[in-house]
Design a protein that fits this description.
The complex is a heterodimer. By secondary structure, chain A is an all-beta fold. Helix content of chain A is about 0%, strand content about 55%. In chain A, strands 2, 4, 5, 9, 10 and 11 form a 6-stranded mixed β-sheet that branches. In chain A, a hairpin with a 4-residue loop joins strand 7 and strand 8. In chain B, strand 4 and strand 5 form a beta hairpin. Classes of the chains: A mainly beta, B mainly beta. At the A-B interface, strand 4, strand 5, strand 9 and strand 10 of A face strand 5 and strand 10 of B.
Chain lengths: ~110, ~110
Amino acid sequence: GESVGLHLPTLSVQEGDNSIINCAYSNSASDYFIWYKQESGKGPQFIIDIRSNMDKRQGQRVTVLLNKTVKHLSLQIAATQPGDSAVYFCAEDYGQNFVFGPGTRLSVLP
Amino acid sequence: SQTIHQWPATLVQPVGSPLSLECTVEGTSNPNLYWYRQAAGRGLQLLFYSVGIGQISSEVPQNLSASRPQDRQFILSSKKLLLSDSGFYLCAWSSSGVEQYFGPGTRLTVT
């Protein structure tokens, strides 16, 4: 069936560097996508969203890029900090609910 | 502002025992409500969602059930727990078409 997945399950970056987390989706009809951050032992927290009529959206230190041609979503984190260490999920709107990818663990090295 | 509560935060139950996890939402009305399970180091698996009182949709056949006795209350239950029911259970709410807001989660260990 349709699904949302991630290219890399783990990512390690040096503090201060930029991070890029990728996500592939297969449902071309999806029109809304979200990135969530989940710290250990906590529920996921909303980071940023994007609708299919946009290619790029920026927040504070984060940018989401949407490439509908290749069905690819990415989350860019600028100047990665230790507090960014977490698991990041992309989610795809499926009408009443969302389908979540398996997640990417981001580790920030000192 | 809206808040979502889950309890208990942690739970250790023997195999075959019943389960009741509760989720309540404050500050909004007629929310969509969701139960997810997350196995260790894995993604989120949607278990149930509800668009209104008494309306429950099940995404995964299993020995769990859900109920929504009040507009802002969502309960996850089981009559007999299995070892495979261990995991991190998350409740979430949303207004239709926008992001979901997650609760703090319940860590369930079935022994």
